[in-house]
């Protein structure tokens, strides 16, 4: 079985060939000021909410392309008579009054829970919430979808600039959002089900770590839209034949639960302690002769 070190060695070897050219091209794009301005305009449009219907149509187009390329929506772990794709859909999303997106799928067969998924403390294995935590009263003991299993699960949640949140969450909010989605998904996915997740920067170490973990308990492939988001770093993980009851899946879920706990209760406290040190240093630097 390949370990993390083997993957590291393989990546180093790849730099001697085509990969190094791909990386150079990518860096040229990211370091281009015109690119910064382009993505700034896109973010402004997304935040305004005026283009919500346009983005909804775009996501449907990406879904069609994803299926044509990966056949991800054809379930293989159920008989044809059991398939009920999108006739019964459940989901969790941040409510619009908390900065979330408007939901355009209005159907009596869909169930949408409007809440902050990062606050389901009991779902993520927390036996208690420290009383000194600034959002102690906001955490929930609810366990959504506890008695349900799903053959197909999408995780598409991203940290939203429009979501007002306390300062302690800023540094680790991406972790606090990614790990709960993974945990909840693996705890309610059917044996042999399909899992699809939006990711960024395939070359990043945390992304490679996630892909490595899924390799241990599913058959994975990566999908990059050509018609939409082609110049962005976004892509999709498509994991089929997921084995949630395997030891590898259990260890992955434990890792994600611990990561959520660290990002929520430990790192935020450490960041607060570090801020005191940095404040003193910053004040002293302002008075230093060599910075005047």
From TrEMBL:
Gene3D superfamilies: Vaccinia Virus protein VP39. It comes from the Eukaryota. InterPro entries: SAM-dependent_MTases_sf. This is Ribosomal RNA methyltransferase FtsJ domain-containing protein. The lineage of its organism: Eukaryota, Fungi, Dikarya, Ascomycota, Pezizomycotina.
């Amino acid at each position: 079985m390949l370990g993390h070190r083997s993957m590291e060695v393989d990546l180093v070897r790849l730099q001697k060939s085509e990969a190094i050219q791909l990386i150079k091209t990518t860096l040229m794009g990211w370091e281009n000021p015109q690119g910064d301005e382009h993505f700034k305009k896109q973010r402004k449009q997304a935040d305004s909410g005026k283009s919500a219907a346009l983005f909804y149509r775009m996501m449907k187009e990406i879904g069609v392309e994803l299926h044509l390329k990966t056949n991800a929506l054809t379930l293989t772990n159920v008989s044809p008579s059991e398939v009920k794709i999108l006739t019964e859909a459940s989901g969790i999303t941040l409510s619009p009054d908390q900065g979330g997106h408007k939901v355009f799928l209005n159907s009596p067969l869909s169930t949408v829970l409007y809440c902050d998924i990062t606050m389901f403390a009991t779902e993520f294995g927390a036996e208690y919430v420290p009383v000194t935590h600034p959002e102690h009263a906001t955490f929930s003991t609810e366990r959504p979808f506890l008695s349900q299993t799903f053959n197909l699960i999408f995780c598409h949640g991203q940290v939203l600039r429009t979501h007002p949140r306390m300062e302690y969450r800023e540094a680790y909010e991406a972790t606090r959002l990614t790990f709960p989605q993974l945990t909840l998904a693996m705890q309610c996915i059917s044996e042999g089900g399909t899992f699809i997740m939006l990711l960024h920067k395939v070359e990043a170490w945390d992304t490679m770590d996630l892909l490595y973990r899924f390799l241990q308990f599913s058959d994975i492939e990566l999908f990059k839209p050509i018609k939409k988001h082609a110049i962005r770093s976004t892509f999709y993980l498509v994991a089929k034949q997921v084995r949630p009851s395997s030891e590898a899946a259990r260890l992955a879920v434990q890792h994600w639960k611990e990561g959520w706990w660290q990002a929520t209760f430990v790192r935020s406290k450490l960041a607060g302690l570090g801020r005191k040190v940095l404040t003193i240093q910053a004040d002293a630097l302002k008075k230093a002769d060599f910075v005047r």
